[in-house]
Amino acid sequence: MHNSLFIRDLLQRTNADPLRLDRRNPHRAIAVDPLAKPAANEFAVAGSWRIECTAVEVAEDIRDFCARMGIRTGIDGEHALALRVTDELAARACRLSCDPSVITVEGGDLAGLWAGVAWLEWEMRTRRGAILPAGAFTRQAAWPVQISQGPWGGNYSVPDFSPEYLSDDAFRLYAHYDVNSMMIYGDLLCYANSAVLPELNFPAAATNLAILRDAAKRAARYGVQFSYCVVGPKLRAEHPVFLAHPEVKGAGTSLYPGQEPVHVLCASSPTVHRFYDEIFTQLFTAAPELAGLILIVGGESFYHCGMHVNPSHPCPRCREKTRETIIADLLEQVQASVRRVKPSAYVAAWAYNVWGWEHPERLPLVRQLPEGVAIYHHIEKDQHLRKDGYTKVIWDYSIDFTGPSDNMREVAALAHETERPLFVKTETGIGLEAIQYPYLPAMQRLADKWQRVRELAPAGVQQSWLFYGMFGSRAEELGLWAAYGGDMERDDFLRRMATRDFGPDAVEAVLASWACMSRAVGHIPCLSLPMYYIGPSFLGPCHPLVPEKRRQDAGEVQLLTPSQGAEVPEEFHAILFYLQELEETFSRRQTDEMKTCLVMDQLPDTAATVFMSWEGGGDGWDIVIREYARATAEAEAAWRHLQQAEPHTRTAQDKQNLREETLLTELIYRTFATCERTVRFLFARRNYEQTGNPTCREEMRQLAALERENALAALPIYRESPWLDLAERTDGKFTPCAEMIAAKVRWIDAFLEG
Ligand SMILES: [Zn+2]
Predict the structure, then answer these.
(1) Domains located in the chain, CATH noted
(2) Which of 39, 73, 141, 157 has its CB surrounded by the most CB atoms within 10 Å?
């Protein structure tokens, strides 16, 4: 979402929603097991405790934690629980000193102190009661900057960051995972108050800067800073700024057929440099707590004349320069502006999509970046991954491939060799294979991916893109482990986590379930089926089966939609905010008008369309079917393990935690099953249309009956776990899942009766 201006009602509602507030509470699942006992060299935290801490938010948090753990606190408590910042420790580092009469939590800075709080909670909660190990323990962060996406239900898009859109509870959630930077995202023009290019001025720019300043100060109390991922202007040729200053008009191109070309600001224009200097100076002056800038220079976001490959209107000033030179020259200017105000702020260059670039391996870009500019790169994207009899193209983020990609190895080696800061982008809970869930409990695989991140020795890590807000999940907690828990083996950490959340007697079954899910995601044959929000990989059991070819709707511009989706019921259409990417800055077309059909309603001639390749003949759909069938079987086994764990939970909280994990796992199983059956169904339909063979029609009927059952079985999951309902998302406007399922069942019934 490039700005929050057009969805303010939605964002206010979701931020204040009691369901979201509860999910964002890091203490929501704290419970004490009455059977918990100290082991050797451990002690029970007994008696009354006085909290000594000058950081108000930390003191309040620890008081709430103690109350939930059954620890008595008060100003005249007999023992001291002291929390403080000390310059004896590095930034983000923490030290716990535990003794039956004094407990001390120290941090090298406020983020470190919050990390100390998180680890104190970890030590007690994994012992399932007010129990601590005796002694002193120091933990260091493996990298200085840890960036997360926006909070679930809270706003991350400029400019609305006042408390009704982004409340302090979100920062408190980050603090418990020791995320010390939150990514904010969107249109730079929201902050434009320029003497150089006054035609670009935003009426509320001063107010927006003040809101950002206040939000940054609120976040800082939780040890959190903002990292701003900047979206630059895209404007039509006759925009007043181009009429008044022809020299700032950069390359222009149409981003979809029929669109009037949109132009970027020329990256080589001294006027544009002065404009950026003004804006970034104002930003960092207003909000010195900003951690830095994430500048996507490949494919989208921070537009420049070298971004679009073969633009219809090349820039006359930049056309002789290489892409790398255009980017390097521009970033040199930006970094100088930022550093003048805040020398410690980072500027990171992210060549996200480089399709069509002359040097897609990104190495010339790394070499040419100005000194001090960080290189930002994804751990897994752009790899051709060899699988069982086929190759899966990892064209974006993946839960299957843990990385690092061949290109990441090269980029990281060059970054270290040339002493450039390396930022690693990863995903802690999902991949493009399933962007609709808060996480997939493929915990062993996710932990392995974090281990690969750690091995790259980054200076910063972004742990998630914006698909699903920070949720306070176990998957996200792996980020805390990765940064601080180098001494803890993967399986040891997972075992302690499972003990904490499900009880010691349920641990084996839960670990077995996670292992099954880790294998399941390794069988997903393509990143999405067929693309992003479209198809069964996103809609899961809500996805319908389309029994016959639909009529082509002539003349209508459809973006990424099925070619023949005109008669698909309204329930299966959605407004997708990310498509703002294709529009002029501040266009409302993709927030108010354009609906996209989310249905995979026919089978393309070959599975190469979902970015796979294979040796030998065939159209590849047999591989897709086989692999989704394997993924379904493993996910079903994961679900069964959790069902078997149910009688072994101890506390009511164990039961609830397990129930939530079971429902999520069941929905993932049902999603994979729908993926397999949708392809089978469309395959049979195609054969029927080509041959008229009644066996094919019969197979379609059998699959439809199975999918009817699958969809209806998913209904209670959405009811009981409303955060899984697509209608609760803030990246588009979707029909509630129950209504989609009703429409799907009606459609199947009509087919079966026909
Ligand atoms: Zn230019």
Answers:
(1) 17-139 (3.30.379.10), 145-231+273-505 (3.20.20.60), 536-753 (no CATH)
(2) 157
